[in-house]
Structures are given as C-alpha cells and as structure tokens.
Write a structure and sequence with these properties.
Oligomer: heterodimer
Number of strands of chain B: 21
Strand content of chain B: 25-35%
CATH class of the largest domain in chain A: Alpha Beta
Strand order of the largest sheet of chain A: 1-2-3-4-5-6
Largest sheet of chain B: 6 strands, antiparallel, barrel
Structural class of chain B: alpha+beta
Distance between the termini of chain A: 48 Å
Strand content of chain A: 5-15%
Shape of chain A: globular
Radius of gyration of chain B: 31 Å
Helix content of chain B: 25-40%
CATH architecture of the largest domain in chain B: 2-Layer Sandwich
Helix content of chain A: 40-55%
CATH superfamily of the largest domain in chain A: Metal-dependent hydrolases
Distance between the termini of chain B: 75 Å
Number of strands of chain A: 23
Structural class of chain A: alpha/beta
CATH topology of the largest domain in chain B: Alpha-Beta Plaits
Number of domains of chain A: 6
Shape of chain B: elongated
C-alpha cells in the first residue's frame, strides 16, 4: 500500500497538468487510502477536500512552499492549527512578492505547530548541498528543521522519477537521514494523474516561462515519469528502502485534519452607540428614517416595520444589516468627498448604492439606505424573501456606480483591515483563444497565424479545432503538420483548466477572525486590494458570508440622467416614487424599443418584450429572468412559459411533489431557488445538500460528481414514491447554467423599469447619459444613435466651440463630446477646452492649431468629424488651412507670415465622403446611416427593414443591413440570430446551422444582403435567411457584438 | 538625354515563380514580416484588390483561397541581381530603383542599337523570359517611369516630347512620395498630377515642405535626377550546417562566430570594412528567417563585428531548430578612422597563436589541418550529444561545426538486471560480447523535437569494473552506446 504525499494539480498554475478530480479518481482507482494535494497555493484545497470525501478517499491538505534562500519544502497539515499555520506561511510568502511568492525561512519556526515537513526531494534545499559535497551545511539545515518542527514531524523526501542522478541523490539523502535519525519517505513528485499528460505538463512549463519548449528546456522534466503510480510500481522503485514507502501510510495516518470542517469564521460586529443593542439601534434608525421618508407613519408602514424587526430579531440579523449599512455609509462618505452629494443628505434619501437580493423586500433595508426600493410602494411581500424558517443568511448584493465602487473597496480594506476584509479570488481558466495563443507559442508556431486562427474560429470548444482548421483554406494543410498536430491534440486537455488567480469582481469576505488563518491572502494586481486564494465556490462551501460590492454602469447612467434633468428643469425625479405601472413605459418595452435599457436591450430581450407584453413589475421580473442561460438551455422552456403565463395554455406537473417549487414559474424553472426547492421536495434532500447538488451542475468536469448526485437523487425520489421515468425527467430539469435568484429578478426589474421610464419620459437626458457611460451594454455607438433618432433625439457632430469633453444635451438632441473624436486623448480635450475658456471661441482652423498644441492626426480627425464646421464649412479647406499652421517637426520656429494666400480653392468632400470620414473618426454618422448611401446601388428588389417588419408571414424578401449583434444561444444547437440595421430600422435574422455554415464568411462582412422568408410569430417578426451575400464597403463599421 | 525605365510588375512573385514554377498554378500571396505582423509583399497578377504593405489578414479577406507563401528576400535579391547584370550587358549605366525597377542612361547607345525602339527590344530580350518587363523611354527618369507604366510587354513606350502634357493624366499615386503624402493629396481632392500642377508652388510648398516643391516639379514633367550607375556587387557570404537541428542560442552564436571569422579571413575582404550584414537561418519545414543590418560605422575586425552581430541577433532570434546558418557581408569599403596597432610584439592574440600553429602543422603534414575547440552549448541538455560541439579554430579551413558524443549503434540483449553487449569495444575490429550489471537507469522523453527522442539509459558495470553507458531508443527499439 502507498499514499502519494506530493502531488500538484492545475492549481499550481503552470506546474501541474491535471484537475483535482482527475488526481482523486486515479488515486482511488489505484487503491490509495489517502492523497495529499501540495500545490503552490491553497486555491484548490477546499475543492480537493470535498471531492475526496465524496469518493471516500482521505484528503491530506498541504502545500509546496518555495523558500527565499532556494529550494522548496512540502508542508502537510496534521491539525487545524497546522492548517492555520500553512495558510499564514503562504500569506507571508504572498505579501513579500505577489507574482513570485517566496517565504523567508525565519517565519518557519513560529508556524511549525501541527505541520509535517517533507524535505522536497530533488527540488528541496538539501539536494544541491549534498550534490556539491557540502555535508556539514546539509546536516545543519536538517537539524534546524528538526529543532523547529520536532522529531517525528520531519521526513527526508526521496524521489525516484528515473531522472539522471536520482539514484545518487537518494543514496546521499538516505545516508543523511540515517545519520540524524530522521525517517525517510518516498514520493513521486506527481505533476499529472496519467502518463499521457506529460506533454501538456511540458507545454504548461513553457507557457509559464513565456517561451517555446526548446527555450524552456532547462526547466522541463526530462521524462514522463511524474504521474500517479501504483503501489506496486512505487514498491519496485524503492525496493532498496521499503520503509520509505511504508512511512507514507504512517504520515497519512497522522494527518487527520479535514478542511471541510468549521474554520472558525464569524462576521464582524458593527459598532453601535453606547446604551444600544444592535436591535434597538436598528429600530431607532428605521423609525427616524420612516419619519423623514413618509412624513406620517401609517399603520400599514408601522405594521410592516414591526413585522420585519421581529423576524430580524428572531434570526439575529440586526448586526448583519447594520454591517451593510456601514458599507453604504462608507460609500456615502466617498460621494461627499467627491462632491457628488451634499454632506447632510440622509442615507435613505439618496442611497449611493442599490441592493439586490433579499434586501429589496425589506422596508428596513429601504429605510437604512441599503435598498432603493420601497416594498410598500411596489407591494413586495416579505415571506418570499425572509421566511419564518430562514436557514441561511439572506443574499444581499450591493450595486454601485463604477467609479464609486472602486474607491469603496479600498475604503473597506482600510476600515476593517486587510486581515478582516478580503476580496474573494477568481480563478481564470483556459479558454480556446488563450489555449491557441499559449500552446501554439510553446510549440513554436508563428504568432501571426495563431492570431488569425483564433480570430476566425466559430466554435469555442477546442475539440472542434481540427474540424475548424479543415474548414479554412489557409489552415487545411497544416492539420497534420509539425506543431499543429500537437496543438490539436493538446488543446482539449486544457479547456477550463485553472490558469491563474485574479480578483472576484466585487465579492468581499468580512470576518472577525483573521482570514489568513483560514485561507492565504495576497495583494491584488490593483494597488490597495487584497484577495484570498479561494474563489466564490470555495467561499460558499466554507460557509463564509460574501458581500458582493458590484459596479453597475446603469447606476452611473441613471445618476447622470437625473443630474441633467435637474439642471434643465430644476426638479430631480425621485425614482423610488415613480408610477411602477406606467402604461407608456410598458408600451415602449412591449414594442421592442428598449435598446439601451439595462437588462431589456439584448436582441433576445427585445423579442421577449414583444411576446410577454409586461404590464407590471412582476411581469418584468419574469421577463428579465427568462433570458438567462439556465432557462434557455431547458429546451423550449421560455416559449412554454410565455404560452402558459401570457396565453393561458394548459399545463400540469410531472409529479405533485413539484408543485411548491414550480408553481410560481408556471411549471418552468425560472429562478435559482426553484431548483433547490425542487430537489428538496422530490428527493427529500436538505436545503444545504440541494444547494450543493445545484452547484455541482455548474462545476467544471463534473461527470463523476453528477453521477454521485444522480444516485442520491434517485434513491431519495424512489423513497418518496416517484416513478423511475419521472425521476429521470425531473433530474434533467436541473442544470448548472446561470439563472437569477428570484430576489435579483425583482431588484433588477425595478432598476430596468426606472431606466426604461427615463428613456420614455426624458429621452434626451437618457441618451446623453447613455453615450457618456460607454462602453456599456452591447451595442456600438452607431446603433445607439440610430435608436435615439427613432426616438426623436437627433445627434449633432462634435464642435470645437460648442462641445464639452462628454456629450451634452442641446436643443433636444445630443451634442457629441470631443472625447468621441478619434486620436483626441483626454489631455488634448482638456487643453482645447481650457484654451477656449481662456481665450474665447476659435475663429478658424488656423486659430485652433495656433492656440492649442494638437498632433496633426488629432487635427485631421477633428476636421473630418465635422468639429470645425462651425468655423469653416468646407472641410477640405479646413484641412488645408490647419495643415499650413501646424508647426514643423523637431521644434523648428514658424515665421509669423500671413498664410491666407496659400489657401487654394478646393472642392469640399461629397456627402458620401463626409459620411465615410465620420464613421472613421467618430465611429458613427450623426446625421444619417450608411445604408442611405448604399441603397441606390443595391438593386431594385431590396426592401427596407421597416417594410420587411410589416410584411406578411412567409413573404420572401431581400433586405440589406449592417450586422449589429449576433447571438449563439446554447440551447439552439447551432442556430445563429443576427440583428441587422438599416436607415429605417432593424430586424432579426435567423440562420439555421447549415445556412450559417455556408454563409459564415459573408457574415463577417460589414454590410450584408440577405434573402429569406418572413416569419411572424407571437408578436415578433424575423427573417429566416436562406442566402447571405457580402457587400464590400470602403469603411470599417463597428463589429457586431457576439453573444455566446 | 534619353533615359529608359525597365519595370517588372509583380517582380517578387515572378522571382519566386521562376524557382518554384508550381506557384503559377493558382493564386498566391507572398507574405513578409514587418515587425510582429505579416504583410503582403506581392501576389499573383490575377488577384485584384491587393497592394504591397497590406496586412495579410486583410488580404486573405479579399483573396481567401490564395495560397500564402513566405517571401524569400535572399531569392528576390539574387534574381534582381541577375536582372541587373543582364541589363548591364546592354547598357553600362544601370541604376537599380527598388526590386523590379531600373533606370538606364541611353546616351550614346542610339547608334549601337539603331534607335530607342530597337534598344528597348534588346533590353527586354536580355532579361530572363520569366520576367515580363515593361520599358518606357523619356527625357528624364520620372517621365521614363510613367512611360513604362503604359508600355506593354514586347513593346517599348516612348513618351512624347511635351513631358508636361504627358504626365498630367497620371494619378497622384505615381509620385515617388510616401503613402501618407499620397493620402493627403487625395484628401485635398488632388487626383491627378495635372491637379497638382495647376497649383502654385507656394501653397504646395507651404503645405508639404520641400516635398511640395519636388511634387510640383514632377507634376510638370521636370526631373533633374541623373542616372547613378550601380557599383559592382561586393558581397561575400558563407554558410554552415549545424548538427542535429538546434535551437540553442549558444550554438547559433558559435556558428555566427565561425562564419564571421571565415569571411574576415578571406583575401578579398582583407583590409576592408563592411557596412552591411545579412543573416539567414533555415530548417526544413520552417520559413527561412532572414535579417539585414546596416552598421553606423563600418566593421572589419572580429572583436567589433561579432558583438555587433550578436547584439542584433539576441533580441530577435529564430524560434525554431536551425539547420543551416549563413552570413553575408556587403557594402565593403576601406577603413574609416579606426586606429590600428603599430607594433605586434608581445601582444600575440589567440588568433595569432592558432594561425601560427596551423602553419606549422601544415608545414609538417601537408594540407591545411582542421583544428577544433570543444564548445559547451547546452550543458544540461538531457541528450548528451547536444551538450558540446566542435567548432573549427582555423578560419581558413573549410571545416564545419561538428557534433560530439554521437550515439554508436550496439547489439544489446537485456536479461533482467544484466545487459549482454555485442559491439566493438576499444580498437577497431574487436568483437567482444560482454555481460554488464545495471547499476542505474534513467529515462529521457523529448517528444517535441523535430526528431523526437525517447530513450531509456542504463549505466552498467562489466568485468573488471568497466563502466558502460548505453540506451535503448524506445521508438525504434535499437540500442546505442554513448557517454553520459
């Protein structure tokens, strides 16, 4: 028997080449009683521990720590204290250098308790000393470790990977161990679970060194012997020292610590004034705010407040809510410092952020400023979000405007301390483009060709790489070529493999006890941020409360729009009090005119609006929830829901046990909670187990996990009398794709409604703010401009005398800001505005050039964008005049001569040329559309999109347009939906898989001509394409957004 | 003074097609590196819509079914050299003006060829038939160039006497200015040279600087540039093969040093200094890596030349296992301001010692001896034969870089922990089967090499304590002896 005590997974980022579960399954198959995961961090430690438990294998948590004096040690946690010490040691190394962590050995003695040390084999500190003949130094080193860790906790590690020199080194190590009475232990320094992975491991080493395999030769393992070997193989390799093999089991027996047990996590307690408890303080805050908000506290409001305070007290949530209030107060401090809010503004009147999740249903949340929604005004009931039998902390995320959120994170770190407020990590994984670039470079393939290949791919799965290359003429012949054949073979092994640790978008863990004792922390790439080794899944598995401080660009947009409205009208609308059932707003949404509106703007949402015909916030909550991958992937679930909800189609449950879970979704799983409820009710699992099963569906490489859960689900459902075929049917309703929690839907529906309300009633301010908050959403500026024009909001070219840096409202339209002019950077914009402020408006192109030091390219772009039309209508003349006044290169002085006679008469650009130039320099054509100019050349049979949208079902038409957006929905098996736009409107095309494959190349064109049949269905109009033709245009239109 | 312009459109394409006739069978794009990007160097004449300098990705969007071939600069230069030499057979004053274009001063040749038309025909016939040349004749270079644009293969085009009227019709793209200037001219609405000529010189000069004056003159058919006959080619080059197809930078630098010493030792280079160097690295299955370098100061000694070459190679080396390395030095001239040593005694360099040793050995044994030094190029390489090479010491010898410690085929039978060897041991002709006990074994697996290596090494002890190291090739099953 044997247990491997030194194994690396992908989580060692560039060293290991197997997933955690692959190592475990292989170890189990080989009959190991235990396996140690000793990555260079603890990113995968919890996943490993939980997966091992599922397989009935003993997990040993450990790590490979690199020392700053050279060499690597393996540390295995025997106890909870040992684990805390290991986590602290990694933290110490991370804080010294986040990109290349190395541990100062002086930290070891203070953190030795509960840890077993293995000396690291050929990469340990002893190896070079022994090979250089420095025996005395080696003895001293080993003795020091004995002194720090204690006899019985130190083992000399022997490795026999059939590397030249292993035998000699092992003899030296064994002799040293014997001299000092230290036991030896055998390991195989595992880097992958099976021999076949050695090629990938070599490639990962080259990627890590940012070089080719040849260039990485000094660091490559020389052979393929670093895999999990059978006990018999290990016994043969160490037949000269059988005790070393037996000691693996001894050590495994001592390492009983299980990481999935309680780590001592607790939320910090918020400060309250003297004489108050958290409950009494919360009560006081609520009633003070209610008086401000409502004036007179009605019996209804009082009753609701009391009901909530009772539940909050029962579930001991007052401190939790006050902690959130703390965070929002920090955000308000920042707003006051930035001059964005008056200092005396009560928190609830102008909350800097918006809650989503359970907070939406709490009047208390509304009153203490963590929610933007008055549940009384929107009639949101409480029990759905805070039931009597609440088992877990309510899920509350806070959304902030972009700029505010970044500052808030730094402020939270400062306020609580980096040991007690740490951002969750996010493990980046290899995807197909990164695989092609990284693996291709390691294989020495030409970078330009790799770039072309990854830019031309249609599939995002590397298993399709060979087929994709065969379909491309320039890559067809390379498929079996040297290097390319290896790329094709290795790429699928790397998909979804952990690549590196980054920062979660905004998930913060607050803890009263030091987080570094539970998981290592390190500084983030952004200064002032600290992140932990664990990602959101591990954080959830560990039971940490993660507070999501997220940025929602729509909040920036809404804030700006409100400010503009206040500037124009003197009144600032209170979005918390607008009519939630304004028919005009819903009419707009239901006509599919909600482009630019948060959550309601994707092509799928525009269609859904036309089908669902929402009339209230509940409808809207369903609408935003339906267009999520988790719903779309359920076959025709979305259509079924619309049929049942809107058209009253009959339906029934597959089994009565589904009722509680599926009733609200009309038999369809629309929200995340329904999945958990369904599993609980059908299979009898607990809420915690059901949630784990739900999350298992979303994990990568989860086949073995799903097999285990299927068995559990099946047993439970059988015990409840569910027939076999129904069990399978219900099990298949569960999926791991993303769905909204119900509370999110409602919170987002309100934010979406508020944005739609602004678009409907204040379109000018809406579009100005929308343009200023770009990039945001999915549509290029040109598409947003066209939408604005259709809403009666014209766009005006930027103007050196009228524009600011940002867009501004002007005459009911949008004056484009100078920042939209290409090659005009922020410094140039600022200089131009400052000089205009100082010296007055510019009188001519020459005047501009003389007064502001702009680069020639910037001047050219200003002219071509029409920004000097106000001072010189003829743009060619403007270019010539500006060119005369541009200073020569290299600082030569310009003579003050009159240059007016050097301006010859020049014919201006044609409108067509002006249009092309404006697309090039602005990314949009404010006054019109490209298709206006192309239409005369398209031929007689080409219909406008506005006319096509009115055509009869089945009519065969030819249309032309610019592809604005492309969608590849996962449940649609290769069907592609493309939105095209012309000067009259937009239309959705449907391309079945065969048609798309045929027309794939044409689809990359900037303008396309499409022939197809009109399909009218459920209030929507589409064109089912049968032929697509590329139309060459002399300008590069913005690329279509690709949803996958 | 009549001047002829010989223009070969798509010269780069024709140069490659001359060596690889199969390129003519379908549409081809020739691509070259420009920094990190691939650009179009040329294409088949039948492909429309491409231009030199266009990004390759954009070109493929236009001609997606074209075959992409790496442009070989060495091939282009050699072919053009041949063209120029052929033209020189007919006219002594030939000035190359970029690949595929040359100017000839026809003064005094009318009598020899019986007129310009006959001369033009003679020029065309002088060229290899694979190059369809267009010949234009005019009163100056620019007019001759424009005339060549209108010429067809087989006929020369003689520009009319009124040069100004002749050039008016041509588009502004014909002007010998940068693409950026052309774009600006177009932006101002100037489409033809006539549009440019219609302006006063003042505004044009104010807008475009000195270029403006030049463009104005050319647009009026005025070009005072004389034909500058080319100098005789003075390039010296050498190449060598590297053992085992190696991507080791150390080996590459060593090869560079060997080649540099060889070239500098040549008689025709003695006392001369190079202003230009070109390196090329080739390997089967990879596009040739080529770089050219111009030196600020001419270099003619190994202690100056080698560091200059190394400093240019190191930031941008070839990224594949190089099999053949070549070096060419050109633009040779006399010494420019470098101080030499007056007295040599007491300062005999290593090179001097080697030269002396070589001379003595030659005097003794007859023939130039091959002297080598052992160079450690990859000390930790898993394959022993890749760790060291023998580099020729004597630059005058024809010796190449040689591998060391190559595996020797052996007959071995493995029986448990024993190996039975049946191979020559010690002197030639000795065949002694030997039984040796395995003391150690290790494995090497280098799967990505052009010739993948997968070996199991054994260190064994034979009779009398003699040590053997051998390996079994896991791919072929053959056994070899090799020092570790």
């Amino acid at each position: 028997m044997y247990a491997e005590l030194h194994a690396h997974s992908f989580y060692s980022f560039g060293l290991g080449a197997s997933h955690v579960h692959e190592l475990l399954v292989r170890a189990k198959g080989l009959g190991y009683p235990a396996l140690a995961l000793t990555d260079a961090n603890l990113c995968g430690a919890l996943e490993f521990a939980r997966a091992a438990a599922g397989l009935g294998l003993q997990p040993i948590t450990g790590g490979a720590v690199t020392l700053d004096c050279g060499g690597q040690l393996i540390l295995l946690a025997r106890t909870r204290q040992g684990y805390a010490n290991l986590s602290r040691l990694f933290t110490c190394a991370n804080l010294a250098d986040r990109t290349d962590p190395k541990l100062d050995v002086r930290f070891l003695p203070g953190h030795a308790e509960g840890l077993t040390l293995l000396t690291g084999g050929r990469h340990g500190p002893l190896a070079p000393l022994l090979l250089q003949g420095r025996w005395e130094a080696a003895r001293r080193c080993l003795q020091q470790w004995l002194d720090w860790f204690g006899a019985g906790a130190v083992y000399v590690e022997l490795q026999q990977n059939l590397v030249q020199g292993d035998k000699e080194l092992n003899l030296h190590l064994a002799r040293l161990a014997q001299e000092l009475g230290v036991p030896a232990v055998a390991t195989n320094h595992v880097l992958y679970h099976s021999r076949q992975r050695h090629q990938l491991q070599n490639v990962l080493t080259a990627i890590r060194r940012n070089t080719t395999l040849e260039g990485a030769l000094p660091w490559l393992q020389p052979n393929a012997e670093f895999y999990l070997k059978s006990p018999q193989q290990m016994a043969r390799l160490f037949r000269w020292h059988p005790q070393a093999v037996r000691n693996t089991l001894k050590i495994a027996g001592e390492c009983a610590f299980n990481l999935s047990t309680d780590l001592g996590y607790q939320l910090p307690a918020p400060p309250v004034p003297e004489g108050y408890t958290v409950d009494s303080y919360l009560r006081q805050l609520c009633y003070e705010a209610a008086a401000r908000r409502y004036g007179r506290i009605t019996p209804k409001a009082r009753s609701r407040i009391e009901e909530e305070l009772g539940l909050i007290q029962k579930h001991r949530l007052a401190g939790f809510l006050l902690l959130y209030r703390n965070l929002v107060q920090l955000a308000q401090e920042i707003m006051v410092e930035e001059g964005l809010a008056p200092p005396e503004t009560p928190l609830e009147l102008r909350p800097p952020g918006r809650g989503r999740g359970s907070s939406v249903a709490l009047v208390t949340g509304y009153l203490i400023g963590i929610s933007h929604v008055d549940p009384l005004a929107y009639d949101l009931t409480l029990e759905r979000f805070m039931p009597e039998d609440l088992q877990t902390l309510p899920d509350i995320d806070l959304d902030f405007p972009r700029a505010l959120r970044d500052k808030l994170i730094a402020r939270v770190h400062r306020e609580f301390g980096p040991e007690h407020a740490v951002l969750a990590g996010a493990v980046a994984t290899y995807q197909v483009k990164g695989i092609i670039a990284g693996v291709g470079k390691a294989l020495g393939l030409p970078s330009e060709e790799l770039k072309r290949l990854s830019g031309s791919l249609n599939s995002h799965h590397p298993a399709d790489l060979k087929a994709e290359m065969l379909a491309m003429p320039e890559f067809r012949e390379k498929v079996n070529g040297p290097g390319w054949n290896h790329l094709i073979a290795l790429a699928p092994q790397l998909i979804d493999a952990p690549k590196g640790l980054g920062q979660h978008v905004g998930g913060m863990v607050l803890s009263s006890s030091p987080i570094s004792e539970m998981t290592p922390i390190r500084q983030g790439a952004i200064e002032g941020r600290y992140i932990m080794d664990w990602d959101k899944d591990s954080v959830a598995d560990a039971g940490f409360a993660k507070i999501d401080l997220l940025s929602l660009p729509v909040l920036d947009q809404i804030e700006q729009a409100l400010n503009l409205i206040e500037q124009r009208t003197g009144q600032r609308p209170d979005l918390a009090r607008i009519n939630p059932a304004d028919p005009q707003v819903y009419d707009m949404i239901n006509r599919g005119k909600s482009m630019g509106v948060f959550l309601l703007q994707s092509p799928a949402q525009l269609k859904m609006g036309q089908r669902l015909k929402s009339r209230n916030l509940l409808d809207l909550a369903y609408q935003v929830a339906l267009i999520r991958p988790g719903v779309g992937v359920q076959g025709s679930a979305v259509s079924q829901f619309v049929e049942r909800y809107r058209h009253g189609a009959a339906w029934d449950y597959d089994h009565p046990l589904e009722r509680r879970a599926l009733e609200r979704g009309f038999g369809i799983i629309v929200w995340q909670e329904q999945v958990v409820q369904l599993i609980m009710d059908v299979a009898g699992l607990s809420a915690a187990e059901a949630d784990r099963m739900r999350r298992a569906f979303g994990k990568r490489h989860n086949q073995h996990l799903l097999k285990l859960w299927w068995e559990k689900f099946q047993d439970g459902a059988r015990a409840r009398g569910v027939p076999e075929e129904t069990i399978l049917k219900i099990f298949h309703k569960v999926n791991g794709e993303y769905m909204f929690p119900e509370s999110h839907s409602h919170a987002f529906a309100i934010s979406a409604y508020q944005a739609a309300w602004l678009k409907c009633h204040y379109p000018t301010e809406f579009f100005v703010a929308l343009m200023n908050c770009q990039p945001m959403g999915f549509y290029p500026l040109e598409a947003l401009k066209e939408d604005a024009r259709r809403f009666g909001v014209p766009f005006f070219n930027p103007c050196v005398n009228a524009s600011q840096g940002q867009c501004t409202p002007e005459g009911g339209g949008v004056r484009l800001g100078l920042k939209f002019v290409q090659h005009l950077g922020p410094a140039s914009v600022a200089a131009l505005l400052a000089e205009r402020q100082r010296g007055g408006p510019y009188s001519s192109p020459g005047d501009l050039v003389r007064r502001v030091a702009l680069k020639p390219q910037a001047v050219e772009c200003l002219v071509l964008a029409g920004a000097l039309d106000g001072v010189c209508k003829n743009r060619r003349q403007a270019l010539w005049e500006a060119g005369l006044h541009l200073a020569p290169a290299k600082g030569q002085q310009v003579l003050p001569l009159d240059l007016d006679r050097d301006v010859p008469p020049l014919a201006d650009f044609t409108p067509y040329e002006q249009m092309l130039a404006e697309y090039r320099t602005l990314g949009l054509y404010p006054r019109g559309h490209l298709l206006e100019f192309l239409r005369p050349g398209l031929g007689k049979g080409v219909t406008t999109l506005a006319a096509a949208e009115q055509a009869e079902d089945g009519a065969v038409l030819t249309v032309a347009g610019w592809p604005v957006a492309r969608q590849h929905p996962r449940g649609e098996k290769g069907t592609v939906f493309v939105t095209i736009e012309d000067e009259t409107g937009d239309l959705q095309l449907i391309l079945w898989p065969r048609v798309f494959a045929r027309c794939r190349k044409a689809m990359h064109s900037h303008v396309i001509k499409v022939t197809g049949a009109v399909s009218r269905w459920d209030g929507t109009a589409n064109l089912v394409a049968s032929r697509v033709e590329a139309i060459p245009v002399p300008v590069e239109m913005p690329a279509a957004h690709d949803w996958r | 003074m009549p001047i002829a312009c010989v223009l070969i459109p798509h010269f780069i394409y024709h140069a490659h097609a001359r060596r690889q006739p199969e390129l003519r069978q379908g549409p081809v794009i020739l691509a070259a590196d420009q920094g990190a990007r691939k650009m179009v160097a040329d294409c088949s004449p039948q492909i429309a819509g491409l231009r030199t300098g266009m990004p390759l990705a954009a070109a493929l969007a236009v001609a997606g079914n074209a075959r992409v071939v790496e442009a070989d600069q060495a091939c282009q230069r050699q072919e053009f050299q041949e063209v120029l030499q052929a033209l020189q057979q007919r006219c002594p004053a030939v000035e190359p003006a970029g690949l595929g274009c040359a100017y000839l001063d026809l003064t005094g040749l009318e009598g020899l060829y019986g007129g310009d038309a006959h001369l033009a025909l003679a020029l065309q016939r002088a060229l290899p038939p694979e190059f369809p040349a267009q010949v234009g004749i005019g009163t100056n270079k620019f007019v001759a160039y424009l005339a060549a644009q209108l010429a067809q293969y087989g006929n020369a085009f003689q520009a009319p006497a009124d040069a100004r009227a002749f050039v008016q019709q041509f588009p502004v793209e014909c002007l010998p200015v940068s693409a950026a200037v052309i774009a600006r001219l177009r932006q101002f609405g100037f489409k033809t040279l006539g549009d440019v000529a219609a302006l006063d010189i003042g505004p044009l000069q104010t807008q475009f600087g000195p270029q403006g004056k030049r463009m104005w003159e050319l647009a009026k058919g005025v070009d005072s540039r004389p034909v500058m006959p080319m100098k005789e080619e003075d390039t010296v080059s050498a190449s060598l093969f590297l053992p085992c197809g190696n991507a080791s930078l150390d080996l590459l630098l060593l090869g560079l040093e060997v080649l540099a010493r060889k070239l500098l030792a040549r008689k025709e280079v003695m006392g001369k200094y190079a202003g230009h160097a070109a390196m090329a690295c080739a390997a089967a299955g990879f596009p040739t890596w080529q770089r050219s370098y111009a030196f600020k100061e001419r270099l003619g000694t190994i202690d100056k030349l080698l560091p200059a070459l190394k400093s240019r190679l190191l930031p941008d080396p070839p990224r594949f296992p190089v099999e053949e390395l070549s070096l060419a030095l050109s633009d040779m001239a006399g010494e420019t301001g470098a101080q030499g040593l007056l007295l040599e005694q007491g300062r005999t360099s290593g090179d001097g010692l080697v030269a002396t040793l070589a001379q003595r050995l030659q005097a003794r044994g007859g023939g130039m001896p091959s002297l080598y030094r052992v160079v450690n190029v990859a000390p930790d390489h898993p394959l022993p034969e890749m760790r060291y090479v023998l580099a020729p010491l004597n630059p005058e010898s024809t010796a190449e870089v040689r591998p060391v410690n190559q595996p020797v085929l052996a007959q071995v039978v493995k029986e448990g922990q024993e190996l039975a060897l049946q191979c020559p041991q010690g002197g030639a002709g000795e065949q002694a089967p030997v039984r040796a006990t395995v003391q150690d074994l290790w494995k090497v697996d280098l799967w990505w090499l052009p010739c993948p290596a997968s070996r199991t090494y054994y260190r064994a002890t034979g009779p009398g304590g003699k040590q053997f190291t051998m390996f079994q090739d896991n791919l072929s099953g053959h056994w070899y002896l090799q020092q570790p």
